[in-house]
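Example 3.2
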Amino acid sequence: MKYRNAAEILPAGLLREIQCYIEGELLYIPKAESKQGWGAVSGSKKFYSERNRRIRELFDGGMACEELAEKFGLSVSTIKKIIYQKK
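Structure, written as tokens:
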């Protein structure tokens, strides 16, 4: 984060108002929009959630971890993590 002098950026009236609350200290001003969660914009989260749901469904249907690993191109240990993670 870069330090910026408020007197160079803010209008004088706004600066005086802020000085009523805080003066001579650093103040963090967050971005206006909230940050979206991982994969929300690209669709990755939806893709992996659907894939993992399908893996659990196939496992519950009797497919072995080794078969799932080959079908989805994942390691057996990754398949086990997906199957046994809390939902």
